[in-house]
Every structure is written in C-alpha cells, then in structure tokens.
Design a protein that fits this description.
Blueprint: H1 9-18, H2 25-32, H3 36-48, E1 52-59, E2 64-71, E3 75-82, E4 85-92, H4 95-105, H5 112-122, E5 129-135, E6 142-148, E7 159-163, E8 166-174, H6 177-182, E9 187-191
Parallel strand pairs: 6-8
Antiparallel strand pairs: 1-2, 3-4, 5-6, 5-9, 7-8
Helix pairs in contact: 2-3, 4-5
Length: 199
C-alpha cells in the first residue's frame, strides 16, 4: 500500500489526536468534527497500513467491550527529493531519532545546527530525562529547559555551539512539568514523551 494516500487531512487529524494517547472512534469523531462513518473508514485504512492499532477494553458503564485506537509505532515517513538522492521510506523511530526529527521540524532553520549540538551534549543523560524544551523567547542564547526524573538531576554546564564559523552560547536549566505547562507558548518541545505541552 502506498503510504502517501494515507496522509489526507482527515487521516492526519486522526493521527494528530492519537499522538496524545488512546482514543475511541467517538472521541476521534468529536475531535475531527466528522461522522462516525468517516472516522471508521479512515481507521480501517490506517490499521491495514500498520500505522494505528485497535484494542478492546471493558466498558464499565455498559458492561460491553469497546474499541480504542492508538499509534502502532513511532514512525516517520520520509520523502527525499535532492540532487543525487530521491527516495522514500517508512522509518521506525527511537527516542534519539524522534528528538532529531523535532529539531529538524523547528521552524527556525538557522538554529538547527546549534540545537543539534546542544542536544548531543546531553544525549548520554536521555535515560534519566523526562522532557527537553527550547525556550523560544531567549534571544541572546539557546536556553534548553530539562525535566529530570525525580532524584536524577545532573549538573550541566553551558557550552558554546559552533557551526560554519558562528557560535551560540547554550545554557541548560532545570525545570518542572508545572513550569512548562504554565507558559506553554514560550517553549518548543524537543523531547516530550508525557505530552506536557500538547496533553
């Protein structure tokens, strides 16, 4: 099955909703403001392609099983059109690749190399990190805010990230889920497995 046909706006809305957690078809229909029939048809296609999966769970209110859907895997569908390289691939993502994708999707492209270096400097600590957020309001330096798992905080010194003769200071700041949620608009999520910003 050609994956391009799966990424219509209707199916994209479903995937975006499922990125924050499991949803029933009724919840998806409400979110997308469309009919159950449209949602069911889209879910069938996405499930056949292996992009979403269904799960029956008990419904305590009615005593009958109901179905919820979730993303089957963390994937990226890459389409590359470049001199000497034209290809497409469905790529399964681990946490490192997801963070790199988040960096590349950030709309300030000139900052990508510096953010990459800022992330690579803390990559070894990823197993004890719950969230990494770029402070979009910081103009003089790259300010990276980190939520560590309880009792696992590491002392991270500022660095100078260099690229093509340019240099940017990178500072690392400790934060909490509550602090990020309080001012969501000021941050861009580089690593947000708990949906602190979008949840």
């Amino acid at each position: 099955m050609e994956k391009e046909t799966l990424f219509t706006s209707a199916k994209w809305n479903i995937l975006r909703a499922l990125s924050t957690g499991k949803k029933s078809p009724i919840e998806l229909a409400k979110t997308a403001n469309t009919s159950m029939s449209n949602i069911s048809q889209s879910l069938r296609f996405l499930e056949l392609a292996g992009i979403v999966q269904s799960e029956r769970i008990s419904n305590r209110d009615k005593g009958q099983p109901r179905v919820v859907y979730s993303l089957a895997k963390d994937n990226a569908y890459l389409i590359v059109t470049a001199t000497g390289l034209v290809d497409k691939k469905l790529l399964e993502l681990d946490e490192h690749k997801k963070i790199m994708m988040s960096i590349w999707l950030y709309d300030q492209e000139a900052q990508h190399p510096f953010i990459e270096k800022a992330y690579m400097n803390i990559q070894e600590h990823l197993p004890i990190i719950q969230g990494i957020y770029l402070d979009k309001t910081s103009l003089s330096e790259l300010s990276i805010h980190i939520i560590f798992k309880e009792g696992k905080k590491k002392d991270l010194k500022p660095i100078n990230a260099e690229h093509n003769g340019l240099s940017r200071k990178v500072s690392y700041k400790f934060t909490t889920k509550e602090a990020i949620q309080k001012d969501k608009e000021s941050y861009y999520a580089l690593h947000d497995p708990q949906n602190t910003i979008r949840g």
